[in-house]
Amino acid sequence: MPEGKPVRAAGGFTSGSVPRHLVRLGSYMAMGSVTMNVAQLAEAVYLGMVGTEALAAMGFAFPLTIVLFAFAGGIGTGASSVIARAAGAGERETMRRLVTHAQLLAVVVGVLLAIGGVFAADWMVAALGAEGEVREMTVRYLKVYMFGVPFFLLGIVGSTLLRATGSAASPGIVMTAGSLMQIAFGPLLIFGLFGFPELGIAGAALAYVLSRAFSVVLYLGLLVRAKMYEWSFEDFIGSWKAILHVGGPAIMSGLIHPVSMLVMTRLLAGHGHEVVAGFNVATRVETMAHMILWSASSSAEPFIGQNWGANRVDRVRSALSVVYRFCLAWGAFTFIVMSLVGALMVSLIDDNLVVREVAQGFFLIIPLTIGMMGVMQVANSSFNARGMPMPPLIMTLVRTFAFYIPLCYLGDYLFGYMGIFLASGLVNVVAGGVAWYWNRRSIERHGAGFGAEQGAGQGGEVRPA
Fold it and tell me: Are the beta carbons of 189 and 46 closer than 8 angstroms?
């Protein structure tokens, strides 16, 4: 589908090669997501020049910023689900209305979160166990960061809307442009170069805010150009209900993940702020690899949604087979690379001996299991794309509260911070297997009702999901 043209009523992913669509969607999303994480890694490099305390402050801020991503990702997931299924069914006017109303919902939620975050930043950071200068630096960062929350939500939602309506390239290109802007403005505002004010850690947050605002302008321009807005508030409550039918449980699932991060950060804080700093740097390096898996699951979601809406169960199964195998292969590759060069990458950011030791331990465990984490994400995306948000929520609740948190406490008691990493890796493997099996059985059960075994046809050979 040519970029910037009105979306076809039939949807962009219901015909043609399944692997080709997935590669096109995934490659552009990977470009955008990897660039976004390069920006976060660059931010860590800049703050590593400021000092280990600044890196520790970023570590304490990280679980709180994930909370914001939960809302953005949840609204985007809900909107993508209903819009992609409408596209697959050829309901063009419904698509236009939902796109507009999804953006309105993102603005309302973003403003409320920003206001609450500014007032609650101090006590939230204290609750995580940050003390002294590290606590003050974390609060300074968050109070600036919160001003970018509405732009952040609009950007994430705008990205999912473009993919859901059939645009493969635009979201990744816009994400890349915003991230490059963040990389460029970071040192100017942190260190006060070329006449800019020297803001320290607050400058890193401001660079992020400016980059998100820039991305939003681009997203809105693309949606307007593609004639995907309907300037009407008619039945926006109905649209919000449809979006939140999937988006509400997705937000709850997303909010549970920060709970596990809060627990992990709190436990790591008991071993010293250098351990928190090491964990923060290691996760930023590892996240670059993990975002490839996120790109794969995010790209599968609009594809599955459109084909489910068009009753093309054969193409859904074929897509899942391709993406699952990619996740496992990428996980194996990531483990090899991180175990060999991960510690070296960390040393370029912070040469503190404890920071390096913590990161090295992290790289020996977590990357080995992220392939199964990717399988879990793909299965959850499949459920959400098909309008079934409860299985991902149930799996997230059980994973976090029945297994992850108890095992982290047990691991910390028995083996220290390495035990926490071991618990996390074990849970990734088990949860991935359960999610794969549940999703496969669900498609077999619900897909049989379509009576639409149309064969691989234009989509390539059908394989078991």
Answer: no
Q: How many angstroms separate the Cα of 201 from the Cα of each of 35, 115, 144, 399?
A: 21, 20, 10, 34
**Domain spans, the chain:** 18-447
Please tell me the distance from the alpha carbon of residue 116 to that of residue 134, in angstroms, as a whole number.
Answer: 22
Task: Answer whether 172's CB lies under 8 Å from 28's CB.
Answer: yes
Q: Among 4-18, 52-66, 114-128, 229-243, which stretch is predicted with the lowest mean pLDDT? A: 4-18
168 confidence band (pLDDT: 50, 70, 90): low
Confidence band for 131, pLDDT divided at 50, 70 and 90: confident
CA distance 87 to 213: 28
pTM beyond cutoff 0.90: no
Closest CA to 441 of 391, 373, 396: 391
**pLDDT category, 30, cuts 50, 70, 90?**
confident
For the record, the structure tokens of 172 come out as 């990744």
Q: How far is CA 3 from CA 165, 168, 171, 184, in A?
A: 11, 8, 11, 27
